[in-house]
Amino acid sequence: MNTEQDVTIHQYLKDCGCDEEEIVKYLAYVEQGGIKNQIFILVRHRKRLLNRLHGIQKKLDCTDFIIRQLEQELSAKQ
Length: 78
Hints:
By secondary structure, this protein is mostly helical. The protein contains 3 helices and no strands. It has helices spanning 3-16, 20-32, 35-77. Helix 1 (3-16) crosses helix 2 (20-32) and helix 2 (20-32) runs antiparallel to helix 3.
């Protein structure tokens, strides 16, 4: 693999939110031809992102609930 490809892959992984440790491991697996390990890193990263997303979704749901409650209270007063 050439340096330009490394830079491109590094940027893609940064854009995905991978940390530097994950990126270094991933690039090492690229050099070794370890596609299964590359997939493992990406799947593990995806799971972490999804867990964060679920946490944020729960907070959004709670916020929406409070907004609906307040809107109902406002409507009842009018």
